[in-house]
Structure to design on (746 residues):
């Protein structure tokens, strides 16, 4: 597991072992481990006395969660309407070809996970690509590829 | 030494992404090396709204408006403007390129705007509570705590005519009154900051630029309805807004404006932040509350309404960020003042996020009743690259399109609905002649299908059916009776879906069929996409009279479909071409033709 049991207990304590904060707890785990490891979910279910089905239902419902390990960097293309009409779709298709992954997939070398988001709210910079926390605006196919070469 | 110059640097997400922070740091550094650090005050503010021209730096008292500033310009700004008192002309905004001084009020983008919600954005440092207080911040809270009863507040809101800005437009006073009238010791106040409409970002900018206005308003609602606890449900995709909110909460607690016994009035109220985990449907109020409780964010049937039975089944006032930001102003200046702004049907102002093929994209706040023409052509500066206006989409995935003939319609809740669109949260996406209506409609349906929570079948199955039909049409496999099929499925979804998401999901189709049925026919009958957008229906060609044989496109082509000798005309092998469009993007001579 990519997160220690001790750390999990600390996270649970930060949220007072309250099942109403389940989403916030899972967000912390996702942030630190990069995904929701199955043993971690088992431990949380056990400690909070909630059925595993509920954790699974949250893990699959919200886009922020992943049940599979993700790559070192997350490349997130904005698929909002402003980016769409300024050519975001073509940039995404280019990255899919270059990285050999589908949306939601991780490259074989575990370097990049390719994701999409529905609007980052900086539409004047459309099309927008976010790599980890960094936002790159006014993308086109060639620039997107160049930017990823720096990682 | 007295401060003689104020330098305001835009710190909104748009400008931050374009290195506004480096500009800010460089300005501070340059002011120190030039020895003027005591006479200039450098402040990072919220969004100026004029995102197209970002990053923006404004200097007071001269009111110089510098646009598209780069980090390396900082030194020149300090050396020339601050030390020598000479404006850096090359950075000033002026459209006609006259060297005339461009004051903010001379800029057409701002002339027709009227700012209530965005009153502090771009004026104050959102990370300093003192600046908010200096602009009448928390004065409304003080007024209600010591001079007004809950009934006074509700009648003031009633007079103001304020309606919820989240989309549905429900009268705010009535919501508050429902909750207030229930006798229950535990009630909640919730701020809906789960802004999800693609192309709408007014809530994010408000929280980034003026977080205290929302905290103040929520506390006022707590006092009015008898709630002591509030939650802000905000998208995790908005890290800057989240940090500024957290800082604002800390500072407000320190000043006794939030927490126990606020301003010694005996009233206590505190706020917590919850981060959305990426589900559009959580913008629907009952789904948001279910998510706050730690569950899958699925909507519930209404009634009971949240105002009566909301979070953990307790009465809950839930309003959207923009609605909250109006409240302190209404309390201070009075409901009557507010009601004078706008139209008979809709009072006050509305913030729109103007994006797409528009020259000046950005955030604009205008009185209700302003026409689309004024927003798009006067404020927005018209269509980018001198193309022809085709339509404007309002209301996001729940809304519809409005065409040229209706540009003079005054915008309010009533008129937009009459045209088959809606206000929604205020996204305004401008499309030009190159945009394909069927493709854009498919985009919106793809969005709602993706985001449907799956609880009720009209939305889950209906949405998918509509998407499949549209997909077929954009691939040239549509049939004429598809149009009637879409209408009938659409009407069924409108009637039978559980929540707003499903009920409004067919709107983009119904509205585009109303104005652009011919474009659907072109896709179905002629198997042509008149705007050249739908991949399966177009081909890329090289224009012989423009190609100079530089081979730039051939080098980029991923499938080696472009061949030709150097300095001679190239050609594209249509059997190999995957229509990725990189040749079109690469060619500097407009030699690639899409048809």
């Amino acid at each position: 597991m990519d997160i220690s049991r001790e750390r999990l207990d600390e996270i649970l304590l930060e949220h007072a072992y309250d099942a109403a904060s389940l989403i916030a707890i899972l967000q912390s785990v996702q942030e630190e481990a990069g995904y929701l490891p199955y043993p971690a979910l088992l431990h949380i279910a056990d400690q909070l006395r909630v059925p595993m089905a509920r954790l699974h239902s949250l893990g699959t419902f919200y886009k922020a969660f992943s049940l599979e390990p993700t790559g070192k960097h997350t490349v997130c293309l904005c698929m909002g309407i402003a980016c769409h009409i300024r050519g975001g779709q073509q940039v995404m298709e280019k990255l899919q070809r270059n990285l050999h992954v589908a949306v939601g997939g991780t490259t074989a070398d575990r370097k990049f996970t390719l994701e999409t988001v529905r609007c980052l709210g900086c539409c004047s910079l459309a099309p927008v690509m976010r790599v980890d926390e960094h936002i790159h605006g006014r993308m086109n196919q060639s620039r997107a590829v160049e930017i990823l070469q720096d990682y | 030494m007295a401060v003689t110059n104020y330098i305001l640097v835009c710190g909104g997400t748009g400008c931050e992404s374009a290195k506004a922070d480096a500009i800010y740091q460089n300005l501070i550094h340059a002011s120190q090396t030039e020895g003027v650090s005591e006479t200039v005050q450098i402040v990072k503010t919220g969004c100026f709204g004029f995102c197209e021209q970002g990053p923006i730096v404004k200097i007071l008292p001269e009111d110089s408006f510098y646009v598209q500033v780069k980090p390396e310009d900082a030194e020149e700004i300090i050396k020339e403007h601050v030390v020598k008192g000479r404006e850096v002309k090359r950075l000033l905004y002026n459209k006609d390129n006259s060297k005339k001084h461009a004051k903010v009020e001379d800029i057409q983008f701002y002339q027709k705007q009227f700012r209530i919600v965005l009153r502090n954005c771009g004026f104050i440092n959102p990370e300093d509570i003192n600046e908010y207080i200096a602009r009448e911040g928390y004065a409304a809270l003080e007024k209600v705590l010591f001079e007004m009863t809950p009934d006074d507040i509700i009648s003031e809101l009633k007079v103001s005519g304020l309606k919820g800005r989240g989309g549905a437009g429900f009268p705010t006073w009535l919501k508050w009154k429902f909750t207030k009238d229930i006798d229950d010791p535990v009630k909640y106040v919730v701020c809906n900051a789960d802004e999800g409409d693609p192309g709408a970002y007014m809530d994010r900018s408000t929280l980034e630029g003026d977080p205290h206005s929302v905290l103040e308003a929520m506390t006022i609602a707590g006092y009015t309805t008898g709630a002591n606890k509030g939650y802000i449900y905000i998208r995790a995709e908005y890290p800057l807004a989240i940090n500024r909110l957290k800082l604002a909460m800390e500072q407000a607690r320190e000043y006794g404006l939030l927490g126990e016994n606020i301003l010694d009035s005996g009233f206590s109220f505190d706020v917590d932040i919850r981060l959305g985990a990426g589900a559009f449907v959580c913008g629907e109020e009952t789904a948001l509350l279910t998510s706050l409780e730690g569950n899958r964010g699925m909507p519930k049937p209404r009634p009971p309404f949240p105002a009566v039975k909301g979070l953990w089944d307790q009465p809950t006032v839930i309003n959207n960020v923009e609605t909250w930001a109006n409240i302190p102003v209404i309390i201070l200046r009075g409901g009557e003042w507010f009601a004078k702004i706008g139209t008979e049907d809709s009072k006050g102002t509305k913030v729109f996020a103007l994006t797409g093929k528009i020259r000046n994209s950005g955030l604009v706040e205008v009185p209700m009743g302003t026409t689309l023409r004024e927003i798009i052509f006067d404020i927005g500066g018209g269509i980018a690259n001198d193309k022809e206006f085709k339509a404007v989409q309002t209301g996001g995935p729940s809304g519809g399109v409005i065409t040229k003939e209706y540009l003079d319609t005054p915008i309010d809740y009533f008129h937009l609905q009459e045209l088959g669109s809606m206000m929604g949260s205020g996204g305004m996406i401008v499309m030009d002649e190159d945009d394909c209506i069927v493709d854009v409609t498919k985009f919106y349906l793809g969005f709602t299908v993706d985001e449907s929570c799956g609880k009720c079948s009209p939305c889950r199955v209906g949405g998918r059916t509509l998407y499949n039909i549209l997909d077929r049409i954009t691939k040239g496999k549509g049939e004429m009776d598809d149009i009637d099929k879409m209408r009938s499925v659409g009407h069924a979804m409108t009637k039978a879906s559980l929540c707003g998401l499903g009920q409004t999901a067919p709107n983009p189709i119904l509205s585009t069929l109303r104005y652009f049925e011919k474009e659907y026919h072109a896709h179905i009958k002629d198997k042509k996409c008149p705007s050249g957008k739908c991949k399966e229906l177009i081909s890329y060609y090289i224009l012989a009279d423009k190609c100079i044989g530089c081979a730039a496109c051939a080098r980029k082509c991923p499938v080696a479909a472009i061949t030709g000798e150097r300095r001679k005309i190239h050609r594209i092998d249509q059997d190999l071409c995957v229509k990725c469009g990189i040749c079109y993007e690469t060619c500097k001579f407009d030699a690639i033709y899409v048809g």
Remarks:
- Strands of chain A lie at 73-78, 112-117, 129-131, 134-136.
